[in-house]
Amino acid sequence: MIDLFAWPTPNAFKVSIMLEETGLPYNVVPVNIAAGEQFEPAFLKISPNNRMPAIVDHDTIGGPVSVFESGAILMYLAEKSGQFWPLESHARYKVAEWVMWQMAGLGPMLGQAGHFKRAAPDKIPYAIERYTNEAKRLYGVLDKQLSGKDFIASKYSIADMMSYPWTLASAWLDISLDEFPNVTRWQATMATRPAVQRGMELLADKRVAPPEKMDEETREILYGKKQFEKR
Ligand SMILES: N[C@@H](CCC(=O)N[C@@H](CS)C(=O)NCC(=O)O)C(=O)O
């Protein structure tokens, strides 16, 4: 059995989608990041960066294995299940490129765009424009990659599962997808997959409050001094 430590955000949906796609048995352990549960010493042992998602795989030889960082988790699950990440070197690195692109580009840039547009108490035009432009540029890069193709690499892979939940944030960021028809078509294909539908239902009853409605205590936990305490 695999324990999935999670709260319902795009980074966690990547893992729940992959677990559903592979059919590996798993158990969800909620980590309420709005209440500061990511700072519990037991969780920090698994995920020293105080971020979810993380997994602990108990079904291993030689004792449990823990993995944090969603990209590393999907690679681990792909290797464990032998699915969604081709072994042949060329095809494998085509997927790896887009895994890194999502982890270093799409996720962080859309995250910062959302932060400065919706969560920051001071609305700083330069920051909003900088990250929204980056987000739009990344949608454009993905749109081009999907031109004439059903999936990001040659076949459905972990790269699709990782990018999909983040691209759904466009409405949240006031980014119109009209300019990105290939992304829209690919999103529609992804949405028809039963495993994707089930993965997106992760902890559906615990959806995170929009940043505009966040109370001061939660703000302090996620963006304030709680983050910087020595542990
Ligand atoms: N690069 C990490 C990012 C994970 C991440 O940013 N998780 C956020 C929620 S989406 C979190 O746990 N935040 C808790 C905190 O900021 O203390 C990954 O992909 O796993």
Describe this structure in words.
This protein is α+β, with helices and mostly antiparallel strands. It has 2 domains: 2-83 and 198-228, Glutaredoxin (3-Layer(aba) Sandwich), CATH 3.40.30; 89-193, Glutathione S-transferase Yfyf (Class Pi), Chain A, domain 2 (Up-down Bundle). Helices cover 51% and strands 8% of the residues. It has helices at residues 10-22, 41-46, 70-81, 89-119, 125-145, 158-167, 181-191, 194-199, 216-223; strands at 2-6, 26-30, 54-57, 65-68. β3 and β4 (65-68) form a beta hairpin. α4 (89-119) packs antiparallel against α5 (125-145). The chain starts with a strand and ends in an 8-residue tail after the last helix. The model has no long low-confidence stretch (mean pLDDT 97). Bound molecules: glutathione (GSH).
Strand order of the largest sheet: 2-1-3-4
The CATH topology name of the largest domain reads Glutaredoxin
- The span between the termini is 30 Å
Can you tell me the residue ranges where pLDDT is under 50 for at least 5 consecutive residues? none
Mean pLDDT: 97
Any idea what the shape is?
A: globular
The CATH superfamily of the largest domain turns out to be: Glutaredoxin
Please outline the major beta sheet: 4 strands, mixed
The CATH architecture classification of the largest domain is 3-Layer(aba) Sandwich
Task: Kindly provide the radius of gyration, computed on alpha-carbon positions and rounded to a whole number of angstroms.
Answer: 18 Å
Give the strand content: 5-15%
How would you name the oligomeric state of the polypeptide chains in this document? single chain
Which small compounds were modeled alongside the protein? glutathione
Q: How many separate domains?
A: 2
What is the CATH top level name of the largest domain?
Alpha Beta
In sequence order, what are the helices and strands, one letter per element?
Answer: EHEHEEHHHHHHH
Distinct helical segment count: 9
